[in-house]
């Protein structure tokens, strides 16, 4: 008889055919068998009674920026925080100092993350000089996907955004085509640089300490116009296009209008689904995020976009800044750095939406895990099935998660004001990565427990040669 490494007994397990009570056996980092209650033998037994076993979250939008900016958190601190949030794989965005815009830098970040990560990691590339050769080399190095911004690089941060920011439409088109040649997805932070310039100039005359000024500086039309143009371009470019952090009813309308015209997908984030501009007013610049958290009407539109699969991914956009950096912009919404930590909020918040009857557990985990595995070429992840990676999370659907500086693990626990005091029904009990427990109501495991996640898209050599 097989001696398994671990068996999780008597949990309710979310499988591809729904929620069933079964024992789950793990061997060599994989799910080896689904067993009747009490069957099989293992070196370690985990009692799952009263708990629910889910596929681990695949967070496709994460900013650690390491090895740069250790004062904002490190791979170790932020992957601990991710583990505590039930995230088993994160995709690190290319913003770093310098920007991750070449095969060499993809390799450097892979090595850095391999040494320090507690969970699995994919590495985004920035398409750099926009040639098929450059993006092909990054794809060969194992980049999970590519990212571009349609906005200008923020003032003074050119090296972090070099080969990443493309406000010019001709460059955006070239980026779509170059990345299409690799078969990998291209993720876009979409806001019109030209419309932003006008509204930001007008906002300079307003009260800079007032949160309303941030909304005035980045109106929804900036996002909607950039998305519409990209979707029109993609009808020609044929990329696997993914729109990052959709925030508005207007953009949801645009996405619906273009449905079926090319291969595109879209995401939103917990701050847009669970918070509104009223909360930003209370939290101040700590809740400054680009694009901004908007109105209740926008939030309602995002939930309706989830309901009809216009939006198929929910991600953290975890972006920690130090308390000092946020405070330096305390009275200036235009200058304060944008971003909030969300890795310990995402799953509890979505489980809360499940317990409140807003969405099914199935749907929540498709948004957080299964759809990401499918879209980004990780067929062994995002599901609990024999042969899949044992990247899984045990949750208590009835227990409460309290968010406060005392409960958070992220280095940015003091800048999570948007969520301080929040209580969600649904709690992460244990996070297992590749068969190893990395969180068990407290951080366990070791730096280096995470594995590099390389995608398995078929590279399209014919497309690549003609690009
Ligand atoms: Zn981001």
Task: Write structural notes for this entry.
The chain is an alpha/beta fold. The chain has a domain at 56-378: Alpha-Beta Barrel (TIM Barrel). The protein is built from 16 helices and 17 strands. It has a 9-stranded parallel β-sheet. β11 (240-243), α9 (249-257) and β12 form a beta-alpha-beta unit. α5 (169-180) packs across α8. It is globular, with a radius of gyration of 21 Å. The termini are far apart. The structure holds zinc ion (ZN). Zinc ion binds at residues 61, 63, 93, 317, 319.
Class of secondary structure makeup: alpha/beta
Instruction: Label the overall shape.
Output: globular
What is the strand tally? 17
The CATH topology of the domain at 56-378 corresponds to TIM Barrel
* Residue windows where pLDDT falls under 50 for at least 5 positions: 461-467
Strand content: 15-25%
What is the CATH first-level class name of the domain at 56-378?
A: Alpha Beta
Radius of gyration: 21 Å
Separate helix tally: 16
- CATH H-level homologous superfamily name of the domain at 56-378: Metal-dependent hydrolases
Distance between the termini: 54 Å
Write out the distinct hetero groups bound to the structure. zinc ion
- The neighbouring-strand order within the major sheet is 13-12-11-10-9-8-7-6-14
CATH architecture of the domain at 56-378: Alpha-Beta Barrel
Largest sheet data: 9 strands, parallel
Compute the average pLDDT.
Answer: 96
Helix content: 25-40%
State the main characteristics:
eight-stranded mixed sheet; globular; TIM Barrel; binds zinc ion; alpha/beta; single chain; 23% strand; 467 residues; disordered C terminus
